[in-house]
């Protein structure tokens, strides 16, 4: 892992874009689905499956963010294998991969996430389950961090970091004028490889993820 991270920094000129996101719509959907989901699936529905689902939609809109660089060639993938960084119980990090995430709905993604994360923490993943990712999400917010700048997981060209969800006072426009409302807010950070993803593409991609999350409907 140490060698892989050093190689990534030496290989890719890293640029970061940061956006804030209102998770009110996701929060509402999660609460509406939560009890039935827990009863049926046996585990709680977290925010991460919603984030994964919207990331997949955004990657379909911007396929270059799901590509890789091979020498002087650009490899654009026609599938999305979503890596999810998982902290091990006794230290260390591993990135299990949801294969063909673009073929799964919210429930399917949630099931895979729960299964892979549980087995990752007890070192029960197969080699195939940690290979061939095309894009990675890392949730440093689980430790309370609000912003981070993750290192790209080579040979991918971007990685999305998700910060802790915090209730904040936000100014919103209403027909009666501006008002202050309490909102569940989260910072998203996109680190991207500037050899392939320029600022315009990286900025549009992360804001498309925000758009899908803020307008989420179940």
Query: How many strands appear in the DSSP assignment?
Result: 10
Instruction: Kindly report the name of the CATH homologous superfamily.
Output: Chloramphenicol acetyltransferase-like domain
**Fraction in helix:** 25-40%
Q: In terms of per-residue confidence, which ranges show pLDDT below 50 for 5 or more consecutive residues?
A: none
Tell me about the biggest sheet?
8 strands, mixed
What are the key terms here?
two-stranded antiparallel sheet; eight-stranded mixed beta sheet; alpha+beta; Chloramphenicol Acetyltransferase; 218 residues; 10 strands
Tell me what you see in this structure.
With 218 residues, the chain is of the alpha+beta class. The chain has a single domain (2-214), classed as 2-Layer Sandwich (Chloramphenicol Acetyltransferase). The protein is built from five helices and ten strands; from the N terminus they run αβααβββββαββββα. It has helices at 2-11, 24-41, 48-61, 106-121, 199-214, and strands at 14-22, 68-70, 73-75, 82-87, 93-94, 97-98, 135-138, 158-162, 166-174, 177-193. The strands form two sheets. Strands 1, 4, 5, 6, 7, 8, 9 and 10 form an eight-stranded mixed β-sheet that branches. β2 (68-70) and β3 (73-75) form a beta hairpin. α3 (48-61) packs across α5 (199-214). The protein is globular and about 55 Å long. The chain starts with a helix and ends with a helix. The mean pLDDT is 95.
